[in-house]
Design brief:
Low-confidence stretches: none
Structural class: alpha/beta
Oligomer: single chain
Number of strands: 15
Mean pLDDT: 94
Radius of gyration: 21 Å
Largest sheet: 7 strands, mixed
């Protein structure tokens, strides 16, 4: 019965909006609706379940490629982006049952790790059945790309609209990246999305992106011609890649910029001037897996950027765990405070996807509760590991 109370006591309670409460108790009904938050454990009557470490809201994975789950361990680490992309597209003729089983297993892994919502990239309809029946809430970004070939925009659009129609629930049409979407395809994408929706785009993951748009140089020219595309009509803009993306995207939607490994303070400032609802999704383990580098988070912190976290796919990660992403950042960029990382992983992620009922532990919400390995040492909060476990 939903009226049966559950009480969870913890040394550290991260509410998701920056607050950290000590020795707190969360009272919920049996399905996880938050009824009360108490800060005096000793006065509570009845059974109280003690949770070691810390409790956070359910985690939001704002960037995943669930449909690539069958690719785990099949692409080498440290290849950098262009060889990585070539390796991914070379895998064909995978048994469909194997793909389905991997998708189901990845969905279950995320659920157990405490992920309650996912922004998921889809190029196919493979994940639609799993998402429809999952306990996780999905926002599907049906991703389109025509390799900057205006002449392919109409055909590409029609092909991916079939995928769009196959997915139910929360969804939008998303441009893959600045270097793979023509202006014509951007226009068609903009015609589908509605004000207030969320649109995802991969951004500045490798120095080759900026080289392409600023100077018309870099590895992407060879990459495209290697696939048989004519790049003779391409003209560099003289600006970094993010400008091309933002100038061609709707400004009345939330925009989720993904990776941002080479984004500069100037890039961040330009984005914020063009759209007040820009979110920046970081996938640190994928960045290390592919390019062996991390973004400069100091620039995002200085700009007051709304940061979120993602796992990317099992093609470019060892697991699907937002707690592991937080641990990686805390390990290599310890200047990012633990409470800040929790906000990235919860409240900011929920806002990016438009899921206002998630992300914050507050009375009246049902955000999910997750146990994490966090402690206070000499007055400092420390994420000790990437271990996380769903409580409710």
């Amino acid at each position: 019965m939903s009226d049966q109370l559950r009480k969870f006591a913890t040394p550290l309670l991260f509410t998701g909006d920056g607050q950290v409460l000590k020795d707190a108790v969360i009272i919920t009904d049996s399905i996880g609706n938050i009824l009360a938050i108490e800060e005096n454990v000793s006065t509570l009557a009845g059974d109280v379940q003690k949770i070691d470490g810390a409790i956070t809201p359910g985690h939001i994975n704002t960037h995943c490629h669930l449909e690539l789950s069958h690719m785990k361990g099949k692409v080498d680490t440290g290849t950098q982006l262009l060889p990585f992309l070539k390796a991914v597209v070379s895998f064909r003729d995978i048994d469909q049952e194997q793909i389905h089983q991997a998708i189901e297993a990845a969905d279950a892994e995320m659920y157990q790790n405490g992920i309650v919502a996912v922004g998921d990239i889809s190029n196919k309809a493979d994940t639609a059945p799993t998402k429809k029946n999952s306990s996780i809430r999905y926002y599907t970004f049906v991703e389109m790309f025509d390799f900057l070939q205006d002449g392919l925009a109409a055909k590409t659009f029609d092909q991916y609209m079939d995928v769009y129609e196959a997915h139910s629930g929360y969804k939008s049409v998303a441009p893959h990246a600045p270097y793979t979407v023509s202006r014509s395809l951007f226009q068609k994408i903009n015609g589908v999305n509605t004000p207030g929706s969320t649109v995802s785009i991969h951004n500045q993951e490798t120095p080759h992106e900026n080289a392409l748009f600023v100077h018309g140089t870099g590895g992407f020219m060879e990459f495209f011609t290697g696939f048989g595309f004519d790049m003779s009509a391409f003209r560099p803009t003289g600006k970094t890649a993010i400008h091309y993306a933002l100038e061609n995207m709707r400004h009345d939607t939330r925009i989720l910029m993904v990776h941002n490994t080479t984004s500069t303070a100037e890039d961040i400032d330009a984005a914020h001037h063009l759209n007040q609802e820009v979110f920046w999704a970081s996938c640190p383990n994928a960045n290390l897996y592919i390019e062996n580098r991390l973004p400069d988070y100091t620039q995002f912190l200085s700009a007051g950027a709304k940061m979120t976290l993602g796992t990317d796919s099992l093609t470019s990660n060892w697991q699907l765990s937002i707690a592991e992403e937080m641990f990686t950042i805390s390990k290599y960029c310890s200047y990012v405070a633990a409470a800040e990382l929790i906000t990235w992983a919860t409240a900011n992620g929920a806002k990016a996807l438009g899921f206002d009922d998630l992300g914050v532990i507050a009375v009246g919400k049902k955000p999910g509760l997750v146990q994490m390995d966090i402690s206070e040492i000499s007055g400092q909060l420390k994420i000790n590991s990437g271990i996380s476990k769903r409580i409710i």
